[in-house]
């Protein structure tokens, strides 16, 4: 059994307004779950650039990304960059707990937008006037936004419980 000499013990961290000392990181510790938030923000942001819907026939194919589809793509891009920034802030320091839980709200917003756009895409597929000539596919971008949102919520919930 070893004892620590008070003279050699590390000094406590100074108080900084709005910041908290990060807990020690071990396997599966807070820094590991902060990486989830960084990955989630990256997936959401990249999802706004990838195709959300593709129209094709025998002679041509047209893909539209989230940014081509209107304001939804811009909202997805900005939200992805915000989640990415929160994840980087978690890696560098421990921001206020309210900021650490913002990816839950952002993930919920992204799931809601993705579901609305899935429904709009399925409506376009179901009401296609030329089903034998024009094929309509939902693209990978919507799936990326949905997966990124789920990862963001998971990372925020786990980090939120540990801090």
Key descriptive features of the protein:
59% helix, single chain, mainly alpha, three-stranded antiparallel sheet, 163 residues
Tell me what you see in this structure.
- This protein is mainly alpha-helical.
- It has one domain.
- It has six helices and three strands.
- Strands 2-1-3 form a three-stranded antiparallel β-sheet.
- Strand 1 and strand 2 form a beta hairpin.
- Helix 1 packs antiparallel against helix 3 and helix 1 runs antiparallel to helix 6.
- The chain is elongated and about 80 Å long.
- The relative contact order is 0.21.
Mean pLDDT metric: 82
Q: Mind summarizing the main beta sheet?
A: 3 strands, antiparallel
Strand portion: 5-15%
State the share of residues found in helices, binned by percent: 55-70%
What's the total helix number?
A: 6
Order of helices and strands: HEEHHHHEH
Distance between the termini: 30 Å
Q: From the alpha-carbon coordinates, what is the Rg to the nearest angstrom?
A: 22 Å
Overall domain count: 1
Structural class: mainly alpha
